[in-house]
Amino acid sequence: MNKLEKIINLAEKRGFIYKSSEIYGGLKGFYDFGHLGVLLKNNIKKLWLKDILSMGNIFLIESTIIGPRVLYEASGHLENFYDRLVECKNCHNRFREDHLLEGEYGEIEIKDNKALCPLCKGELTEARNFNLMFKTYIGPVEELASEGYLRPETAQGIFVNFKNVINSMRAKLPFGIAQIGKAFRNEITPKNFIFRIREFEQMEIEFFVNPEEDEKWFKFWLEKRLNWYIKTLGISKENIIPYELPKEELAHYSKKTVDIKYKFPFGEGEIEGIANRTDYDLKRHMEYSKEDLFYFDQEKKEKIIPYVIEPSAGVERIFFALLCEAYDEDEVPNEKGELEKRTVLRFKSYFAPIQVAVFPLLSNRKELVEKSKKIYETLSKDFSVVYDSSGSIGRRYRRQDEIGTPFCITVDFQTLEDETVTIRDRDTTQQIRININEIESYLKEKLKICNS
Length: 452
Ligand SMILES: [Zn+2]
What we know:
Blueprint: H1 3-13, E1 17-19, E2 31-33, H2 35-53, E3 58-60, E4 66-68, H3 69-74, H4 77-80, E5 82-87, E6 94-96, H5 97-101, E7 110-111, E8 114-115, E9 128-131, E10 135-137, E11 147-150, H6 155-159, H7 162-169, E12 175-184, E13 199-209, H8 214-232, E14 240-244, E15 256-264, E16 267-278, H9 280-289, E17 295-297, E18 302-304, E19 307-314, H10 315-326, E20 327-333, E21 339-345, E22 356-360, H11 366-380, E23 385-387, H12 393-403, E24 407-411, H13 413-418, E25 420-425, E26 431-435, H14 439-446
Parallel strand pairs: 3-12, 22-23, 22-24
Antiparallel strand pairs: 1-2, 4-11, 5-6, 5-9, 7-8, 10-11, 12-13, 13-19, 14-15, 15-16, 16-19, 17-18, 20-21, 24-25, 25-26
Helix pairs in contact: 2-10
The chain binds zinc ion (ZN).
């Protein structure tokens, strides 16, 4: 197995991620998240919220996933949000034309100036536009007027609430509206595990600024977001790559976009995009809704349409990057002192899904079990904790290493005499003895976000 396969294997085996509808053969491009996956995802979202809410001028929103047809006419998605699709006339596999020509499906043969199917060398159809939005109908009648779409980005729910937020929150430029939520894209070829999927979660901020200050704020957000990956999530600098999109790759609304890419084992991939969406969206919604979406600038006494800087991050992609970043294999001594191979996820302790594991040395000694359960219950109030009493201590350590638990506490016979326990560090595997009433302060110190 290569590194990527090992990571996917571990994520599925240990309950981070499952294939969606697996008992029916799996649904391509969809994944479910298990207990540890949900905990890790929540931690990513919490760290993001903490970082942006501390600015004081970001307001939250949770808008609906389904929107009416007119919303996506206004946003330009019905007209512009498509991929060029070709189909093999022989095997009927479908490909994205751009990816086909880039060789993503393997080497392609050209005949009479036309690419052939990379799978069977069959003839391909002419490329046609394939819209990436999922369509549905709202209410019982299937007609144009009742068409609804699953949102392809959370952003539009923000733009249509622009006036509501200004009026209810007394928002003044510059300010942002942020949203975390699901978005859907009917990708022609989902691939690379949870990297390109059809249902995913976004963390987006639409940051409204005076049009004269768009470049200044673009720079601000690019730096702030790069910092978040490197300092808060602790991703090494070499693995985070800003990439400015050339004009021909820009989305229909964008004046400038810089992608933040992560060096995945399969290659570089975008985990966030910072875009200057200008006044495109607000203008279009004014045009289609006939509502006044101007902002009144109190100082200049004039009406303006703000520009928008949008940092848009993909939760699953960040999740995947953290798994890749944390994955490691090394050798550590077992109970007999012999070196043994282990797999370890070196998550930063403050966002590890489980922060502490509590073990009784032996599961058949009532005093040890009772004491451990008491410690488990106390710590559960402030930390993400598991209790585990099955198998040898060595096996229990290995299991916690594999899910990235930074600290393991063991209650042994000495505990019964002097109220001390051992705390073992995942990365160094070193153990220290401390008093039970010092555990909390010890952990709190260790789990603090380190910003240096
Ligand atoms: Zn074919």
